[in-house]
Amino acid sequence: MPSSEKTLISRIRKLAGSGKRSIIKGIGDDSAILRPPAGHDLLVTTDFNLEGTHFRREWHPADSVGHRCLARGLSDIAAMCGEPIAALLSLALPADLPQKWVDDFLRGFLALANRFDVTLAGGDIAESRSGILADVMVIGSARKGKAIQRSTARVGDMIYATGTLGASAATLRTLFEAGKAPKRVRHNERLPHPYREAIGWENQKFQTKRVPHSERSEGWERHFYPEPRLAIGRYLREHRLATSMIDLSDGLSTDLAHICEESGVGATLNQNLIPIARNADLDLALHGGEDYELLFTARKSAKMPVEIAGIPVTEIGWITREKKLLITDCKSSPKKLKVRGWEHFKK
Ligand SMILES: [Mg+2]
Description:
about 25% strand; globular; about 25% helix; alpha+beta; CATH 3.30.1330.10; 4-stranded mixed sheet; 8-stranded mixed sheet; binds magnesium ion
């Protein structure tokens, strides 16, 4: 490991801070003590983030890896209409990993955590013999019985997606195409050629602060620094708009299939309405993953705003009784929608 376990833990403890009211005890005891707000259910989600599967050191700067692995969990909490409380981070690190990588990883992780008032309340550290592994658990809460599930879409509901789709997968595709002979960079602060050029990164250093979050919706930022849609989840909760919801982590076709399977319904998408990101195409918008937008259903009579928290909300289809997934261009008869989520790094 880059520094001793004890040093690393005290470093993380210092950076993590003491947190908010729901945290009775964070890092520093055998177990964290959390107290969810009265009358709330706990939401718990966990994700592996494996080098070579979920990120590549030659492509992803360390702070982006830290950001992404927390964003995945926060997005799951957003998809339940919940509020995040705490995160637990377990890291397995190779012995020869530079300390700078770990510092940058934590910087990315904690910057996102602070922005959403999430306390890093514990975790574990071990030495890895094969690549970096980060296991992130996020704990949140929702008013008792009010978490929005995948299983409650109803026949006749309309289907909505937030933001634009396919930008993350488009960036990944460009990286694959550019990288005939990927080479590892030492500190991962700069994305090496030819990748930087390929995605229009120019010669600039990774400076996430330069790009306001509202503008990070269409290009490589969506891949490297995805924004969990907690504000949209909150709005939908407060206005009781969503009947079912999932976050778009595996791709529209796959995630819509999850809603339909769990709800025992079918769906038809209008392909003309799907909000395709500028750098993507219909195929990537349908099947590319890691957009971390929200996919939800609402009653036909619901008064859905065209924008929530500055992010467009687009009606893209409807729920059907017949348990089939279809897509229509509104000219010819609807076709079967293939369920084909993006399998990252498998090429
Ligand atoms: Mg999810």
